[in-house]
Amino acid sequence: MNPKITRFLAEQKPATPCLVVDVDEVEARYRALGRALPQARIYYAVKANPAMPILSRLVGLGSCFDAASWEEVSLCLQAGAEPDAISFGNTVKKVSAIRAAYEAGVRMFVFDCREELEKLARHAPGSRVYCRLLVDNYGAEWPLSRKFGTTLESARELMLAARDLGLDPYGLSFHVGSQQLSSDAYEAAIGRVATLFTDLSAAGLELRMINLGGGFPIRYREDVPEIDHFAHAICHAMTEHFGNALPEMLVEPGRFIVGEAGVVRSEVVLVSARGRTDGLRWVYLDIGRFGGLAETENESIRYAIHTGRDNAPAGPVALAGPTCDGADILYEKSRYELPLDLESGEMVDLLGTGAYVSTYCSTRFNGFAPLGEYYI
Ligand SMILES: Cc1ncc(COP(=O)(O)O)c(C=O)c1O
C-alpha cells in the first residue's frame, strides 16, 4: 500500500467510495517507461484516467496524448498540451469531433476502414494518418481486438488510398490487448507491421511510424513481468525486422501509467450468509460494477483487496456491489478471502485502481453518488 495514500486516508477520512491517486507515482511510472523504452514517444491514453492533475503533470513531463474523443482532446489542450502532441486515436469518430480537433490544430488521426479514411480526407485534409491493424490479443486479461483494426491486405490498400486522398500516410498501429502478460504478443504484432512496411515500400510508399499501442500490465494480485522485459522484447523485435532503419516508435500506455498509483477505499455495507449451507459469505461493498469496477466483468481484472487487519484468520467470500442489479457482482469464482469476523462499517482498500475506474463510474445508478476522487 502506497504510504502517501495511507497517510491521506488516515488523516482525511474521506467519504467512501473514493479513489485516491498519488500523482508522484504517476510521474514515476511515466519516467520508468521512458527509461525502459527511450526510443519511443509516450502518448498517454487519456481514457485510463483523464483527471486534470494527471494530465497537467504529464504535460509538464513532455508527454504526448492519445485521445479517444473531442472531449479528451479538449481536456489535453486545457491541461496545456500542444495540438501536435495529441493523437486522435479512436477509429470511430464523429465528423463534428474530427472537425473540432482539426480546427484546434490536431493533425494525427487513426482509422481502420475506407469510410473513416474518407471522413478524415474531407474534414482533416492533409493530416498524418495511421491505420490500425487487427492483431492477436492472446495473453491479455482485458482483450480489445474484435472491435478494432483491419487485415494486412486491407491496410495496404487503405494506406495507398490515403495518399491518393491527399492525406499523409504516416504509419501503422496495433493494440495487443490491455493487461497483456506476454511479450510474445508485441513481437508477433511487430512482425506483421514490418511485413506491411516492406510491402508498401515496394509499392513506392515509405511509412515512417509504428504505434505499439498500450497493454503493458501492472501488478494486481500477482506479479507481472517488469516493463524492462517488454521493452527488451520490443527492441529485439524492432531490430530484427527493421535493422538500423528504425521507424519512429510510439506507445500509448494507460493502465501502466496510472493503475498502480490509485487506491479505492470502500466501506463494507453488509456481510451475509443468506441462509446458504455452502458457508460462502457474501460481502457487499459500497462500490461495485456500476461504481467504477467495470473491469471485474467476467472477473477479468482481479484487484488486490486489503482490510486494516490482513493477518486476521480469513475465509472465502464472494464480493458484490451495493446496487439492486444482479450483474453487480465483482467476484464469485476468483477465490477471495477476507477476515472471518469482517463486519459492516469496516473499510477495505482495492489496490491498482488508478486506471479505468473513475471514468467507468455510472452517474447515479440506484441513486448512489459517483465515486469521490482525490489527486494528491
Ligand atoms: C487505442 C488505445 N490505445 C491505448 C490504450 C491503452 O491501453 P492500456 O491501458 O492497456 O495501456 C487503449 C485502451 O483501451 C486503446 O484503446
Could you characterize what this model shows?
With 376 residues, the chain is α/β, with parallel strands linked by helices. The protein has two domains: 50-253, TIM Barrel (Alpha-Beta Barrel), CATH 3.20.20.10; 260-375, Lyase, Ornithine Decarboxylase, Chain A, domain 1, CATH 2.40.37.10. It contains ten helices and 18 strands. It has helices at 3-12, 23-36, 52-60, 70-78, 95-103, 114-123, 152-164, 184-202, 227-242, 255-258, and strands spanning 18-21, 40-45, 64-67, 86-88, 108-111, 128-132, 140-142, 168-173, 178-180, 209-211, 248-251, 262-272, 281-285, 305-307, 314-320, 329-339, 347-351, 372-375. The strands form three sheets. Strands 1, 12, 13, 14, 15, 16, 17 and 18 form an eight-stranded mixed sheet that branches. β3 (64-67), α4 (70-78) and β4 (86-88) form a beta-alpha-beta unit. α2 packs across α3, α4 (70-78) packs parallel to α5 (95-103) and α8 (184-202) runs parallel beside α9 (227-242). It is elongated. The two termini are 15 Å apart. 45% of the residues are buried. The model has no long low-confidence stretch (mean pLDDT 96). The structure holds pyridoxal-5'-phosphate. Keywords: Lyase, Pyridoxal phosphate. It is an enzyme of class 4 (lyase). Residues 24-259 form the Orn/DAP/Arg decarboxylase 2 N-terminal domain. One of its GO terms (biological process) is putrescine biosynthetic process from arginine, via ornithine. It catalyses: L-ornithine + H(+) = putrescine + CO2.
Element layout with pairings:
Elements: H1 3-12, E1 18-21, H2 23-36, E2 40-45, H3 52-60, E3 64-67, H4 70-78, E4 86-88, H5 95-103, E5 108-111, H6 114-123, E6 128-132, E7 140-142, H7 152-164, E8 168-173, E9 178-180, H8 184-202, E10 209-211, H9 227-242, E11 248-251, H10 255-258, E12 262-272, E13 281-285, E14 305-307, E15 314-320, E16 329-339, E17 347-351, E18 372-375
Parallel strand pairs: 1-18, 2-3, 2-11, 3-4, 5-6, 6-8, 8-10, 10-11, 13-15
Antiparallel strand pairs: 1-12, 7-9, 12-13, 12-17, 14-17, 15-16
Helix pairs in contact: 2-3, 4-5, 7-8, 8-9
The structure holds pyridoxal-5'-phosphate (PLP).
